[in-house]
Write a structure and sequence with these properties.
CATH architecture of the largest domain: Up-down Bundle
Strand content: 5-15%
Number of helices: 11
Largest sheet: 4 strands, antiparallel
Helix content: 40-55%
Shape: globular
Radius of gyration: 21 Å
Bound molecules: flavin-adenine dinucleotide
CATH class of the largest domain: Mainly Alpha
Order of helices and strands: HHHHHHEEEEEEEHEEHHHH
Number of domains: 3
Strand order of the largest sheet: 2-3-7-6
Distance between the termini: 34 Å
CATH topology of the largest domain: Butyryl-CoA Dehydrogenase, subunit A, domain 3
Length: about 375
C-alpha cells in the first residue's frame, strides 16, 4: 500500500537503508526503554554510529562525512522512526548543525569540527530558543560581545535538543544588541568553555529519551574565530536559509511516523477481538484505517516531491513550511485515530502508538510552530 518506491531512491540508497535498518534494530530498538529512563541516549551510540558511517551522511568526504545528499539523511530518519525511536537527536546533529558549518563555516572551522562530528567524538546542538522568546527570534537576549581577540557570550537558552550531551553548541546571539535581525550572529561555543553550564534535562510529555535541556552562558570567553563565518550580523539570514532543510527533516520524520502508526495499528486491530470478531471486522475500523492509509500516502507524495525539489536545490521557504505544517498536523491526526483503535492499550506507554502520539505533538511546535508556518505560507500567496 505504501510500497511504491520513492522516486528519489536508488540502489546506493537501498544499501544505506539496509545498513541504517540493521543499526537501528541492533543499537537502538533494544535500548529505547533505557534511553527513556536515563532521559538521554548512551553517549557511545554517537561513536558507534560514527564508526559505521551513519553520521554526517550528507557532508563531503573531505570533512569526514559520507559524501551523500539529503536523501541519505532522510533514510536514516525513516529507519529511526521505523523502530519507534525519538530519543536520538541525530537528525539535528547531521542535518542541521553540520550543515551550518558546511554552508557558512571558514575552512578552519569545517576542518576543526566536521570530522569530529562525523566520527561521533563531538555531538552538536543548536541553541536559538530562550526562556523569553522562541518564535520571535529577532528578540533574543543572549549576547556575544567582541572584546579584543575574543567574544564574551552571556545569556541562557532553553528546550535545546542534545543539550546534555552536546560538545559544541551553535549559539544564536546578538553581536549587536541594539539591532534586531541584523544584530544576530551564530557562535560556535564548545561546552568545555569556562562559564558554560547545563541546566536540567526537561520533563516532557513525549520524546522522553531526548535530552532537551536548558543551557547557561555566564560570560563565556571564546576566541574571535568562533564567529560562524567571517562577518558579524549574518546569523538571521543563515537561519532563514537553513530552516527549510530543518523543516523538511521534521516532515520526513512525520511521514515515517504515520507509516509506523498504520503498520502497528493494522497489526493490532487484526489481533484484537471484541464482540466475537477482530476489531478489524467493524466497518468503522476499516473506514478509519482507509483514512489513515490515505493520509499517509498523500503526505508521502508531497514529502517525496519536496525531497526531490531539495535535492535539485529548489525547495523554497514557503513550500518547506507547507510540508512541515501539513505533515505535522496530519501525523497527529493519524496517531490519534490509531490510538483510539487500540482502546485502553493505546494509552499505555509500552505501546508504540502511545509513544508516537505523545512524541508527535511537538512537531507542530518546534522548528517553527504551525502558526508561524501559516504566516510564512500566507506571505507567499
Ligand atoms: C522537544 C523540543 C525540542 C526543541 N529543540 C530545540 C532546539 O534544539 N533548539 C532550539 O533553539 N529550540 C528548540 N526548541 C524550541 C522550539 O523551537 C520553540 O519552542 C518554538 O520555536 C516555539 O517557541 P516558544 O516555545 O517560545 O513559543 P512562543 O513563540 O512563545 O509561542 C507561543 C504560541 O504563540 C504562537 N505565536 C507566536 N508568534 C505568533 C505569530 N506571529 N502569529 C501567530 N501565533 C504566534 C505560537 O505559534 C505558539 O502557539 C525545542 C522545543 C521542544 C518542545
Amino acid at each position: 500500500m505504501t510500497a511504491r518506491r520513492s522516486p528519489w531512491m536508488d540502489d546506493d540508497l537501498n544499501d544505506l537503508r539496509d545498513l541504517a535498518r540493521t543499526f537501528c534494530e541492533k543499537e537502538i530498538r533494544p535500548h529505547i526503554e533505557t534511553f527513556i529512563a536515563d532521559k538521554h541516549v548512551d553517549r557511545d551510540l554517537w561513536n558507534r554510529a560514527g564508526a559505521v558511517g551513519l553520521l554526517c551522511l550528507s557532508i563531503p568526504e573531505e570533512y569526514g562525512g559520507g559524501g551523500g545528499t539529503f536523501a541519505h539523511e532522510a533514510i536514516l530518519i525513516e529507519e529511526q522512526a521505523r523502530v519507534g525511536d525519538s530519543s536520538w537527536g541525530a537528525s539535528l546533529h547531521n542535518g542541521i548543525v553540520a550543515h551550518y558549518l558546511l554552508a557558512y563555516g571558514t575552512e578552519d572551522q569545517k576542518q576543526q569540527w566536521l570530522p569530529k562530528m562525523a566520527s561521533g567524538e563531538v555531538v552538536g546542538a543548536i541553541a536559538m530558543t530562550e526562556p523569553g522568546t522562541g518564535s520571535d527570534l529577532q528578540n533574543i537576549k543572549t549576547k556575544a560581545i567582541r572584546q579584543g581577540e575574543e567574544y564574551v557570550v552571556s545569556g541562557s537558552k532553553t528546550f535545546i535538543t542534545n543539550g546534555s550531551q552536546a560538545d559544541l553548541v551553535l549559539t544564536v546571539a546578538k553581536t549587536d544588541p541594539d539591532d534586531k535581525a541584523a544584530g544576530i550572529s551564530l557562535m560556535l561555543v564548545p561546552t568545555a568553555a569556562e562559564g558554560f553550564s547545563r541546566g536540567r534535562v526537561l520533563e516532557k510529555i513525549g520524546m522522553k529519551g531526548q535530552d532537551t535541556s536548558e543551557l547557561f552562558f555566564d560570560n563565556v570567553r571564546v576566541p574571535a574565530t568562533s564567529l560562524l563565518g567571517h562577518t558579524e550580523g549574518q546569523g538571521f539570514i543563515q537561519l532563514m536559509e537553513q530552516l527549510p532543510q530543518e523543516r523538511l527533516l521534521v516532515a520526513v520524520s512525520n511521514v515515517a511516523a504515520m507509516e509506523l502508526c498504520l503498520t502497528e495499528t493494522l497489526r493490532y486491530v487484526r489481533d484484537r477481538s471484541a464482540f466475537g470478531r477482530p476489531i478489524w471486522g467493524f466497518q468503522n475500523t476499516k473506514f478509519k484505517m482507509a483514512e489513515v492509509a490515505t493520509e499517509a500516502r498523500v503526505a508521502r507524495a508531497f514529502v517525496d516531491e519536496c525531497i526531490e525539489l531539495h535535492l535539485d536545490g529548489e525547495l523554497d521557504i514557503p513550500t518547506a513550511a507547507m510540508a512541515k505544517l501539513w505533515c505535522s498536523e496530519r501525523a497527529q491526526r493519524v496517531a490519534d485515530a490509531c490510538l483510539q483503535l487500540h482502546g485502553g492499550y493505546g494509552y499505555m506507554n509500552e505501546y508504540p502508538i502511545a509513544r508516537a502520539w505523545a512524541d508527535l505533538r511537538v512537531s507542530q511546535i518546534y522548528a517553527g510552530s504551525s502558526e508561524i508556518m501559516k504566516e510564512i505560507i500566507s506571505r507567499s500567496l
